[in-house]
Amino acid sequence: MKFAVIAAGEGSRLYGEGVHTPKPLVKVGGEALIDRLLRIFSRCGATELVVICNDRSPRVAEHLRHLVVPGPAGTALPLTLLVRSTPSSMHSFHELAPHLKGGLFCLTTVDTVFREEEFAGYVDFLRQACAGGADGVMGVTRHIDDEKPLFVDVTSDGSIAGFHDERGQCHHVSAGIYGLTPPALGTLQRCVERGESRMRNYQRALIGEGRRLLTYDFGTVFDIDHASDIRKAEAFIAEGRP
After folding, report:
1. DSSP characters for 19-47?
2. Which of 5, 6, 39, 241 is the most buried (most CB within 10 A)?
3. How many CA atoms lie within 13 A of 173 on its CB side?
4. Per-residue pLDDT for 242 more than 60?
5. Residue 66 region by backbone torsions, left for phi larger than 0, else alpha for psi between -120 and 50, else beta
6. φ, ψ for residue 154 (rounded to 5)?
7. pTM higher than 0.85 for the full model?
8. In 3-state terms, what secondary structure has residue 104?
9. Mean pLDDT over all residues of the chain?
């Protein structure tokens, strides 16, 4: 299974608060965000890694060009790096799409912090669910740590009925973790052709096209948007260690 990371944002809010390290290289618990994700993906059986970073942060590209991610068999995992700036996360996903064809894949944003053991459970569930006919599994959380959360309408069987900007009767929000099958890339292409530019509208399009999406509750997930989020995420990770 392929794993991909969108690391093309500029981290302007962090920079404005005195964190001048590019967001993918910000350390949480002594480990850069991008390194942590790629290490976790490797441990979850990744066959290939794909990352997009913007061309205005040469430190990130240089770091990734020299990064070696050991695979399960002890050899280095293939790492494809795309260096280009895009107007939105959805357009970054579109740039990654040609490298994600041919099977099940998992996509995250670089600033998503979750517990490692939770992610391993998610990957197992993703593989089982899609083998059973689901079109994808979206990571969700009840912990709202976003200025503009995307609320997820979850049915009693764990399926997604819709994505909403307002809470309404929803108890979960999107965690920025997307596990999808190849047909989802066709939906992405149609969204781009229509001029869509937001990941939440892409997720709505998946439901609109009749895709069967399930949820996996991560419990707590942090997004690193502010300097204070770094401290919160470090404490969160530390709580989960023996």
Report:
1. --S-GGG-EETTEEHHHHHHHHHHHTT-S
2. 6
3. 17
4. no
5. alpha
6. -105, 130
7. yes
8. coil
9. 93
Question: What are the residues facing 68 on neighbouring strands?
Answer: none
User: 3-state class of 112 per DSSP?
Assistant: strand
Specify whether the CB–CB gap between 90 and 202 falls below 8 A.
yes
> Which distant-in-sequence residues (6+ apart) come within 8 Å of 143 by Cβ?
219, 220, 221, 222
pLDDT tens, position by position, 34-56: 999 999 999 999 999 999 999 98
CA atoms within 13 A on the CB side of 59: 10
The tens digit of pLDDT for each residue in 71-90 reads 877 789 999 999 999 999 99
Would you list the DSSP string of 188-238?
HHHHHHHT---HHHHHHHHHHTT--EEEEE-S--EE--SHHHHHHHHHHHH
Minimal CA–CA distance to 111: which of 28, 1, 216, 167?
A: 28
- Candidates 104, 166, 114; CA nearest to 140 is 114
Taking Cα atoms as reference points, which of 188, 184, 171 lies closest to residue 210?
A: 184
**Angle between the N-to-C axes of helices 58-65 and 33-43, in degrees from 0 to 180, rounded to the nearest 10:** 30
Token pair of 181, please? Answer: 């099958």
Number of Cβ within a 10 Å radius of residue 1: 17
The pairing of strands 112-113 and 222-223 is: antiparallel
Q: Averaging pLDDT over each range in 21-30, 205-214, 215-224, which range is the top one?
A: 205-214
CB 112 within 8 A of CB 176: yes
